[in-house]
Amino acid sequence: MDWAWWTGSLAPNSPYLSSLALIKRVVYHDPVLFEMDLVSRLACAAAIKETPGVFAHVRQSVVRLCQDLLKCNKMSDKSWVYKWMEPALGKGIITCSGEKAKFLRRLLMPSFHTDAVRKHLKVFIEESETLVNVLKEETNKEFTNIENFITLCTIDIVLETMLGTKMDVLKNGNLLYKTALERAEDIFISRLYKPWLWPSFIFWNTTHGKEFKQYMNVLDEITKRVIQEKKEKHLREKSETRNGKYKALLDLLLAKHFETHELNEDDIREEVNTFILAGHQTVATSASWALFLIGLHPEVQAKIHEEIDEVFRDDMKRPLTEIDLKNLHYLDCVLKETDRLYPAIPLFARQATEDSNVCGYVIPKGTSCVVPLYFLNRNEDVFPEPNKFDPDRFLPENSSNIPEYGYIPFSAGARSCIGYKYAEMELKTIMCSILRNFTVKSLDDRDKIQPIMNIVLRPSQPIRLRIRSRSIQKHSQIFN
């Protein structure tokens, strides 16, 4: 069967494909081509067992398959692949399973309810304004690598909202943190596609394993220091709460630590690291792809500017409000279409805790089912002309035709993303702030900027934007 998969001679309706496909990935110079090849063979989803590996080949409706898979209680554990994230995230909410996952979800959900997220809007706005001020220095340049600036902005936001500490990495132009996290991500993905590095005793003795530890120490040094400072302050002041409402995620975790001892200091560090990593990378990635697409489509950019002008009237300098964000309906459509084409998290995986039935197929216990969002979002049955950038798909009169599980940017079911409201408000605040002040032009076509299937969907090369002030170019031709 291995040779059949390698040569492509396996019968198209065979129920399983060999995991030698992972080894085949190594010989691909273009990772996207590999995933496209794999998913086209698997039709809509794949499953991989830990040892020995097999890919389940299920030919069913994409939407129905995702719905059955994500609603199945026996498929709610995270895949064994997530264990490789534990050196960075520990056994936090992203990597853990079972009762611990349920406990952490109950504990953390109040921090991400609408009312709680609304309290972070002030930070979103302030840091977005800092980003705008920094980008003003870029308006006389031929091009700008926009991802660097947005990532530093989201790092500042997540450190202040999750840890309650202000570090001003954007103002200081400190790329150390960003570079370390990206390099650690590269090593993680490299290991995923190199089975000979799967055994821990081999990986940690390689150059890559030692580098990974070094890069993650950059994150640990920050979190350990801030946790210790907050802990000492908590002990001095007895409480960091007011009427049961918390200023930052770390405050809630420390309160739980002192009140019930259900969380130890390692648990706190793991959750903080989890939300720092997940909270800044996903939003920065989505914003970068959105600006890239907007910069390629002047007609879309003109509609966004028209909507912004209508919402803010002639007072473009007044502070942004939550009501303003709610009234930016077309910008919502643009961001949803961006996440369809370039989902920040391109795939995720669930593991069967027992033999499970999904769409009439038995998924054996221990099998991890991979949901490749990047390709599912290009399902022609749901999205005609799937590779076309068309924000109108998400206008109310059109989006009603999208099935419930036809578009799931934050996953769905028991393990869906608990921070999606936080991410949506942060992303929209950043995008509105940028587009209130600037016009953007992308200097490279979509064919040149390919997505790279890492933990987040990163561009294959820097996204080069030409940024100009709207105060100079307002109502004039953007793309001269």
Automatic annotation (TrEMBL):
Belongs to the cytochrome P450 family. SUPFAM superfamilies: Cytochrome P450. Pfam families: p450 (PF00067). It is found in: Endoplasmic reticulum membrane. Heme binds at C417. Its main location: endoplasmic reticulum. GO terms for molecular function: heme binding; iron ion binding; monooxygenase activity; oxidoreductase activity, acting on paired donors, with incorporation or reduction of molecular oxygen. GO terms for cellular component: endoplasmic reticulum membrane. This is Cytochrome P450. CDD domains: CYP4. Keywords: Endoplasmic reticulum, Heme, Iron, Membrane, Metal-binding, Monooxygenase, Oxidoreductase. Its cofactor is heme. It comes from Larinioides sclopetarius.
